[in-house]
Amino acid sequence: MSYLLKRNGHYYYNRRIPDIYRDLDRRNNIRVSLRTDSRKQALRNAIIFNEEIEAYWQSLVQHNQPHDNNRFKKTVRIARQLGFSYKPLTTVASLPLAEMVNRIFATKEATPIQVEALLGGKDEPVLPLSKVLDKFWDLSKDKVMGKTAQQLRKWRVPRIRVMKQFIKLVGNKDLKDITKEDILAYRDWWLDRIQSDDKNPESANKDLVLLKGILETVADHTKPGLDIPHLFKKIKLKTRFKQKRLPFTTEQIRSLLQNPKLQNMNTEMYWFLFAASETGARPSELAGLLPQDIRLNDPVPHIAITDRKDRTLKNHHSERTIPLVGYALDAFKARPNGFPRYRDKPDNLTGAANKFLKENELLPSEQHSLYSFRHGFQDRILKVNAPDRVQAALMGHKFNRPMYGDGASLEQKKEWMDKVCVKPVA
């Protein structure tokens, strides 16, 4: 009994549906990757997988239920947790194949205690996956220094989600026992979601990057012998063409800001749109401004986007000053203290503003959003041929050449800002 099929150097479990089960499972056969190019390992995986499949068929008969894809996928997942990616004990895994087969079949009617005795039980975990995140938080304190509570939450939540998904899929195994098959199982799980739920492959790639970062950080410190580059080699998914966010044109901005429907916005959100239209700043940067960052009485009125101990910026290139012209100058004259309602909640602001603009049909297309103000600013400053260094200084981007001197002054920046001012000249 092996039910092995070799294709393109890899082994598959391949079995015709037995006649006695055909009334309930009408598929012609089952073919599932055994995730290995080793015949010896494929035989081991096939034995374990066959046990789970036969138990699945017997449950169909017992409950007189037809084959169900979701239940079958659960069976596949359990089999992978038991054998494909989870090795009970190295001593058992290295037993001669015949002895391993005898032990596995002996567990068919065994109690949990007997199973533990037959298969050797489990080694005492050194660092189970359920504890890896706690270790990761301790080792990543430098990465979260200066983050606000909101920023910290946004940083933590996706990593918590990824680890929960990974543990549910491969089991709460020891960090040192993570294998390439585990990472492939997580990748395959994402592939199923992409096909069934129309998820974007880019989301899967982001989660794979997060998972790699967590495991790599902890492995570097605990030295479990993991080859992280190998585990994640060629694991990235091919992504679809990504529809980019479209910029607002000058006329679209004027039409939007003059629309009477905006009067139904709360005051801070209303003036926020005016501030965003002429500065090119990120929503989170504008929302995080403190009163001392809004300098209306200086020779060149401007805002200062600064990195603080309690509120960090996206990167050090983001720290900059932006002259205030046109609609933005009007906005900060009306809101000299900024936008305190949203100061530590930029996501609340962008979510509420985008919802309002969509519900009131104020966006030119589905590809436009609040962030289109920033894209529009970039387009305008480019069209007037502003020097690259000035563009980078206004946008908060990296300037890809050696930096000499202090850069563009506020007066020089304002000259270019005046050329791209959206507010019509009175």
How would you characterize the overall build of this protein?
The protein is mainly α and 426 residues long. Helix content is 51%, strand content 6%. The chain contains 18 helices and six strands. The protein has helices at 39-63, 69-84, 90-93, 97-106, 112-119, 129-139, 149-170, 180-197, 201-222, 228-231, 250-257, 267-279, 283-287, 326-334, 346-359, 372-383, 388-395, 410-419, and strands spanning 4-7, 10-16, 29-33, 294-295, 302-305, 320-323. The chain has a three-stranded antiparallel sheet, with helices on one face. Strands 4-5-6 form a three-stranded antiparallel sheet. Helix 1 (39-63) runs antiparallel to helix 2 (69-84), helix 7 crosses helix 8 and helix 12 runs antiparallel to helix 14. The longest helix is centred in the N-terminal third of the chain and has 25 residues, at 39-63. The protein is elongated and about 85 Å long.
What is the fold's blueprint, element by element?
Elements: E1 4-7, E2 10-16, E3 29-33, H1 39-63, H2 69-84, H3 90-93, H4 97-106, H5 112-119, H6 129-139, H7 149-170, H8 180-197, H9 201-222, H10 228-231, H11 250-257, H12 267-279, H13 283-287, E4 294-295, E5 302-305, E6 320-323, H14 326-334, H15 346-359, H16 372-383, H17 388-395, H18 410-419
Antiparallel strand pairs: 1-2, 2-3, 4-5, 5-6
